[in-house]
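Lecture 7 notes. Example A: sequence first, then its structure tokens.
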Amino acid sequence: MYPIAEKLIVRRNLLDSYLPVRNGNNDFNWDVVTGFILSHALRLQMKMFDLDQFKEKCEEHFTSQLDEPNFWPVLERMYFTNKDILRVSPLFLLFHAQQFTGSGKSSLGAANWRLSSIFASLMGNFHLQQPIQDQLNFIEQQMLDELKDNLQPFEKNPFIDEQPYLPYLAKCFQDDLTFLSEHPQYLLQELGNTLRLYAFTYCTQLALNLDDWQRGQPRSRDLFFILDTEKASSEREKIKRFGYKVFANNSKRLFPILSMLEVLQWDKEKKRPLWQVYQDTLAYPDQGSVLEKLNEYLNQFIQDRALNPIDKPAMDVESVFRQLQQVAEEQFNTEQSDRADVNRKYIKELENNICSDFIQLRGRAGKVLVLNQDRLLLLTNLTIGKNKKLRLHELLCGFKQRGFYFDNQSTQTLVTFYERMGNVERMSDSGDAVYVRKTI
């Protein structure tokens, strides 16, 4: 198969995959996204059945079963007045996505659809095994049975087929969903927070990996955090060089490179990361025809954008891809241009709607990446996963695989925090003999 689109058309910059934000309309409803991702992971959906209808079904059921009909108002107050039913079982989270009727963006909302598509890409063909083993009382189990009567399988994957851009992160995400599903109450409590964590780390790791397409599959990149209880000293070299600053510098490339990637994508076929498009092009037997097509597109693009001409056509695949990246970024470099303004809006929307909970302004140190204690405990439990405990070194490696790095000073603060929580075992004074247990 031809490795790129048959027709390369110079057009305005468009972005339709791999990034959840646009330069506006990024008001994510995390409850809706959480409900829909659980629905997608379980391959179950709820159609045309809202919470009021469910309450009526439960009332019919219990009034016919109970010897004392006046007991129903008690159940109604317990489970429905303040929507406490949504905290009984993870399956009740599907009510958050009840507006999804199979019509895609129009029913979920464009912003929620884009965010959900990122998680669906991370999941790929993965899905959770049914049923989730809840521990419910007799009444709650009957309510859950009523709910299950109104669930049906997904007829098909509603999302555009996308190859995961970050396979290593996709593996972590799938492992963490599996772990959560084995602890239903923790899943119910923390699924939304897990999605927020992964939305952030996906976007930051994507930014750090985006221009390294020539090396093949991406790998986890250094991105250093401090704990929210720490002081941000400007002398901490890794925090200064490989913290917020390195993400901010790389986030400027997201819209330029990903919009360029859209031009290369196959029409009505699986979306591919730039590194995969490059690998497919390298493997294509007739590279001369691809080079000719890409060089011709480059000349047309440069003329359309009034950019500086390239001295001579690229003679190999790597060179032509580098030139594509160069002109894709160059068109946004004029500070006062409309395109530069659009790119700044993308960066601002990303920070405000995905990253804001992880960024703090710390005086002379400027902006730093911060992990608070709740997210640290969640990350700890997810990383330990099915294990009873992990060595500190193994735990930190798991953090890094998920995109969270700590320097030595933060690591010491981390151990002190775990000791205060009571989930540390010290086998000796050696750092390798420190084990960390889950908190669930």
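Example B, a different protein, same format:
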Amino acid sequence: MRWSLLRIPAFRALWVGRLLSWVGSGLAPLALVFAAIDLGADAVGVGLVVAARSVPNVVLVLVGGAVSDRLPRRVVTVGSSVLSAASLTVAGVLLLADRETMVTLAVAAAVNGAAAAFFGPATSALLRDVVPDEAVRDGTVLARTSMNAGLVVGTALGGALVGVFGTGTGLIVGAVLFGAAAVVFVRVPGGPSRASGGASLLRDLAAGVAFVSRSRWLTATVVLTFVYQFAFAGGVHVLGPLIADQSFGRVAWGFAGAVQTAGLVVGAVWAGSLRGRLRLATAALGAVALVAPLMLLAGTLVDLPYVLDPPLIDPLHWFFWLCVGLFVASVGLEVFTVPLDVAVQLQVPRSYLGRVFACLTLASLAGMPAGELAVGPLSRVIGEPLTLTALAGLVTVVALAVAATPRVRRVDAPLVPAGQPGRADPADAGPADATGAARP
């Protein structure tokens, strides 16, 4: 990973702006939830505030990708940051003035979530505009490192601010972070004003979805992204806390979450250190690492005193290995995601980058609520251990299928001189656009 890329002013502005924004993104949801609690919301009310932020994010992310390919990406990035800052400012001021209501808080959360739908695709696509092709891999690793570190810092900072100074102050600090990011993003190059060249926003959106559906390697990786988040959200987010209550406790579960998040940072750095030696097809197998925490969670529910020695079924001993499993799963996710992001940056025409990243983001965002909603009814029918085992099996099967997909195996294959065995079929690449990138 080349930290020297930060010497490039445009990339440095993008990296710092993303870091500030992701710290704000880690802080904002937590502050909004506790603000709802301060207003007297019960579980239903808190759920409505959470949904008010997440639903616009999911619904508008494809639109955000199309807009990012249609307008100057700097404008989209700065605009989304300003909108996020404004939403948190209004919510924080109203809360500090004792004028906040559940309705105004939900509206602020919705605006914040909508802004995030435009921010992600635009900043991801901007990377290609600020670094040369040979530095895309290192730029991708640095970008993902800033994202993961920002979320960790933002969540911790949000908890501290809310606990010590109150939710109103926490929201104002989040607004300041997004405002500072908007100022930094102004230094990023603007890019073309109509990169996509489509006749309308709707046609641009449809063309982006069609591009992904025609590209078998993109379709396969989008499916794997959805399945991973589906299994992780259902198994870890929903069943994990319930199992923790029955065994090692809530405090330990919170620590396990911190270990899991740290794995994202380590995984991004490690995947970047491989420097192209890890092909996308092999990287897809990194998703199988999720099997470790899923099966360890299932193991806490199985009492086998006559098969295992007592230390192996001791809750705290099992908790240690669960932490290891969560850490490994996060490393595996980054091992898959970093080569995927690099392949997208290098193989997808620049005019489609925003929409392709939006499709990947949508798969990730949609997989989480789908898994959270599905795992409850399923566990009632077949039980929690079998549900966790089924999720582990689903991830394994899909990851193996993606790794075996011919287009996935060829998308980042090394170039072989014409006439030599092993040269990729030219039909796989398709005609190149004006940027020199291959079409599907």
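Note on Example B: Residues 304-315, 415-440 have pLDDT under 50 and may be disordered. The first helix runs from residue 9 to 38.
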